[in-house]
Amino acid sequence: MKMKKKTAKAEATKHDITTVALELFFEKGYENTSIRMITSKVGLEVGSFYYHFASKDEVMEAAIDLFFTSYEEQMRFIVNTDSENPRGMLSRYIDYIHEATQDFRTQYLNKLHWSILGAIREHTMLIMKKYIREILELYVEQGIFAAQGTDIDIAINLLAFGVGGSILYQSGDEYEQQQPDMKKRITQILGLPDEL
Questions:
Q1: pLDDT tens, 74-92?
Q2: Residue 54 in contact with residue 45, Cβ under 8 Å?
Q3: Are residues 122 and 168 in the same domain?
Q4: What is the pTM of this model?
Q5: Are 102 and 183 members of one domain?
Q6: Lower CB count within 10 Å: N or C terminus of the chain?
């Protein structure tokens, strides 16, 4: 019983460190946030930090993962919910990425330190590629996407960097205007039988 309490307390402390680190990284940037600042705000000694994390880089990774938790949950929901009827899954996924990007801009863009934006963009692309892969593999499995002559990795990169980049760097109005044509072109490029 004592071991479980220690483990739970250690996990809670690690979560507190991660949450505070995320706040400070967003506010001050990675370079301007010290381990001492993080531990001070959590109410710990600097040495306690190293019980939970090996370095500032490691807590940065944990903080970015924490930030993306709700986004990943929604992406996972789209993939899991639509797996029996996946035809519109890619379209719903693209729409969600657009919606999440608009929410992010509204909630965080002018509040983030510039040095964190690069890490968020990089992590966004990694997550997008992960779920696009799952969707396309499901399409292949169910015969929706034949993948004949198309390297699935090329298709994933095309969607993640092409569509994802377009969504990440365009205003909401630009995307709304281009969305129907973009989805039509995706079906043509991938050789999907119906429009998304």
A1: 999 988 887 776 778 888 8
A2: no
A3: yes
A4: 0.81
A5: yes
A6: N
